[in-house]
Amino acid sequence: MIDTSRRTALKVIGGSAVALGAGAQTAAAQQQTARVRAVHAVPDAPPVDVYLDGEMVLEGLEFQQVSPYLSGPIGTYQITVTPTGASQDQAVIDTQVNLERGNYSLAAIGELSDGSIQPLVTRTPVLSGRPGQGLAVVQAVHASPDAPPVDVTAVVESERLNQQLQQLPPEVVMGIPESQLRFNDEGQAVLTLIDGLSFGNASDALPVPATEYTLQIRAATPRNDGDIVASVPASLESGVSYTAYASGYLEPPQQVVDELGNRDFALFFATTA
Question: How far apart are CA 268 and CA 55, in angstroms?
Fold first, then answer.
């Protein structure tokens, strides 16, 4: 049963997350806190409102927008998503979500037009080991409804780091599996971040060096060298967790373009420091 006394627990005010009750939380309360953010990844949907246990907590979340984290007690919540301004009986998502201690993303994926819209809950990956190792962690979510399975490769743009990686034995390159690292003809390291990810799924998290990359989204192949669908520059910072959402259409329906504008295939990112 849902504890409706927590309805004020997950509120966003001024772009920051606040918790249930006034004043600072105790250490014990912090240990029992869940944080969740909303992600709009439905390419044929207008802005949406998000309700928690019947009360609106987010209004007007746009396509490819990520909300701030909302913080509250661990437990089960009724999450309702509606087109902005619509009543809750017009919900496109109405589901219960159980949140344990940690950080979560609740993404709306699929298509509104064919009724395939659905929630996808993922837990934010975190870096393990010693701090200050110069690593970031990357995860990907495939939310493009007309795209086939994809590979994602990352080309290292730092000349210095490329030289260092070439000199290291493959088995000790910052914990990156040997099968996920190769070098191109220009001597740049190419990391395979994602291998054959299909729609509606999230990849495992992968620690990578914190540096400048060119991310390449490819049609999935056994050697991760398929045609590049999109290429995106990315600067990954040390100690930060990145979730990359592949979203939009490879071939946007004309009706969607006419009503909502450009909804082409692209990557957008949710970050957690």
Answer: 28
Residue 243 φ/ψ, nearest 5 degrees:
-115, 120
Domain 135-272 annotated CATH 2.60.40: yes
Backbone angles phi, psi at 231, to 5 degrees: -130, 125
Supply the CATH classification number for the domain 4-123: 2.60.40
d(CA 63, CA 48): 9
Long-range contacts, stretch 125-134, CB < 8 angstroms, 24+ apart:
125/205, 125/241, 125/243, 126/241, 126/272, 127/207, 127/239, 127/241, 131/239, 132/238, 132/239, 133/174, 133/238, 134/209, 134/210, 134/238
Alpha-carbon span 198 to 242, nearest angstrom:
19
Domain ranges in the chain? 4-123, 135-272
> Which tens digit of pLDDT belongs to each residue from 156-211?
999 998 988 888 765 555 556 666 788 899 999 998 988 999 999 999 888 888 99
Instruction: Decide whether 4-123 matches 135-272 in CATH topology.
Output: yes
Structure tokens at 149: 């399975």
**Residue whose C-alpha is closest to residue 121's, from 34, 11, 57:** 34
Q: What confidence tens digit (pLDDT) does each residue in 48-107 have?
A: 999 999 999 999 999 999 999 999 899 999 999 999 999 999 999 999 999 999 999 999
**DSSP E strands, 62-144:** 70-73, 75-83, 93-99, 102-109, 118-123, 135-142
Q: In 3-state terms, what secondary structure has residue 49?
A: strand
